């Protein structure tokens, strides 16, 4: 199977993950609304935005050099822009969870999920900024770029991996809070969502890893 | 920083993770004993064996071609043997959790953690077998090996990433079961353990990713 075939599988599992996540949040949970008086509807903005931004768009951005037709500068622009949108969605998602905590008087950033998530978000911002300065504006000298590129690539792959760890631990935390048990249908839905997100990450990593 | 420097950081976080895990299981939890009548002591064999086998030894095996001095066949032998020990430790760790479930009449393999873990274990066994047949005994033709190597490498990196997702979700599940709260000292210990395991994975991936 070619790298293009693998990125096809990545797109597929990305879309499956979005569908499963929406079914879960809208049908099984309370729905999604940032401005609601129901804290749980506010909270549900968090998993959706974090997945759409920090996993789906980031994965698509990583694969953009393979999947966007045309010259390399176009691929680079798509790569940078998708990451920028990811950061904006990520900020909305983080605001949603802090708003939910304020509404319910719940402690912030104490779980392993939140520690992994916050670290990933900060390092991601740093990576985006260093990438912008080095490869786009103002752009470093050719020699420096060539030296930085393997680091930029490896760091980007590791950050997607960290974001997926954040997603899986987040699903576990939520499953614990709502008391999901072995016989609940929702348990299986959450598990399939988690596996689908994991497979998206796996196929993104494979599509850039098999060279 | 060179790839060797990064693998040094990986060793460091590997050892920190073992220490934190032992402090947690022995000092904060019930201790570790496969043959105990106390189910929790039996259970504690699980996180230790899974980390030692499927994360620490696997990470060391991935880095073996850089860290083991001497010719490539020696590195290959160390790589294969560490993975074999990992599988044995993994089987002991899996038996421990099934024994614990039997003792307490708890349902098997229903959480996201267990789904990720079981998938990783099965794919890992497959990867080891295909690797053995292709690269060691009986060994494929040079052309086939060359075609398989990028796939073997990419799959191996993805499997370490899956194993770390399994570990992080496992820590979250346990934290939920024992009801860890924001103000507990144990919560911070579990979080630092999780971050340390994540950093081990990050540095292993970076050490083979930056070429």
From TrEMBL, chains A, B:
<dbReference type="GO" id="GO:0046872">
    <property type="term" value="F:metal ion binding"/>
</dbReference>
<keyword id="KW-0472">Membrane</keyword>
<keyword id="KW-1133">Transmembrane helix</keyword>
<keyword id="KW-0249">Electron transport</keyword>
<keyword id="KW-0408">Iron</keyword>
<feature type="transmembrane region" description="Helical">
    <location>
        <begin position="158"/>
        <end position="177"/>
    </location>
</feature>
<keyword id="KW-0813">Transport</keyword>
<keyword id="KW-0479">Metal-binding</keyword>
<feature type="transmembrane region" description="Helical">
    <location>
        <begin position="189"/>
        <end position="210"/>
    </location>
</feature>
<dbReference type="InterPro" id="IPR006593">
    <property type="entry name" value="Cyt_b561/ferric_Rdtase_TM"/>
</dbReference>
<protein>
    <submittedName>
        <fullName>Putative transmembrane ascorbate ferrireductase 3-like protein</fullName>
    </submittedName>
</protein>
<feature type="domain" description="Cytochrome b561">
    <location>
        <begin position="9"/>
        <end position="209"/>
    </location>
</feature>
<dbReference type="GO" id="GO:0016491">
    <property type="term" value="F:oxidoreductase activity"/>
</dbReference>
<feature type="transmembrane region" description="Helical">
    <location>
        <begin position="77"/>
        <end position="100"/>
    </location>
</feature>
<feature type="transmembrane region" description="Helical">
    <location>
        <begin position="48"/>
        <end position="65"/>
    </location>
</feature>
<keyword id="KW-0349">Heme</keyword>
<dbReference type="InterPro" id="IPR043205">
    <property type="entry name" value="CYB561/CYBRD1-like"/>
</dbReference>
<feature type="transmembrane region" description="Helical">
    <location>
        <begin position="9"/>
        <end position="28"/>
    </location>
</feature>
<dbReference type="GO" id="GO:0016020">
    <property type="term" value="C:membrane"/>
</dbReference>
<feature type="transmembrane region" description="Helical">
    <location>
        <begin position="112"/>
        <end position="137"/>
    </location>
</feature>
<dbReference type="Pfam" id="PF03188">
    <property type="entry name" value="Cytochrom_B561"/>
</dbReference>
<keyword id="KW-0812">Transmembrane</keyword>
């Amino acid at each position: 199977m070619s790298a293009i075939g693998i990125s096809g599988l990545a797109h597929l599992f990305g879309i499956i993950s979005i569908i499963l996540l929406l079914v879960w949040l809208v049908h099984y949970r309370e729905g999604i609304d940032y401005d609601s008086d129901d804290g749980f509807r506010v909270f549900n903005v968090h998993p959706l935005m974090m997945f759409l931004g920090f996993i789906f768009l980031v994965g698509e951005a990583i694969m953009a050099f393979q999947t966007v037709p045309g010259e390399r500068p176009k691929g680079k622009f798509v790569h940078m822009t998708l990451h920028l949108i990811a950061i904006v969605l990520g900020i909305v998602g983080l605001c949603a969870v802090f708003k939910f905590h304020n509404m319910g008087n719940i402690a912030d950033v104490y779980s392993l999920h939140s520690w992994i998530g916050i670290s990933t978000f900060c390092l991601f911002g740093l990576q985006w900024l260093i990438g912008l300065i080095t490869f786009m504006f103002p752009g470093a000298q050719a020699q420096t770029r060539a030296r930085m590129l393997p680091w930029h690539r490896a760091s980007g792959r590791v950050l997607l991996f960290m974001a997926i760890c954040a997603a899986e631990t987040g699903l576990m935390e939520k499953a614990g809070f709502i008391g999901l048990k072995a016989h609940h249908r929702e348990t299986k839905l959450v598990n399939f969502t988690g596996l689908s997100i994991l497979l998206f990450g796996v196929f993104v990593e494979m599509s850039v890893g098999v060279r």
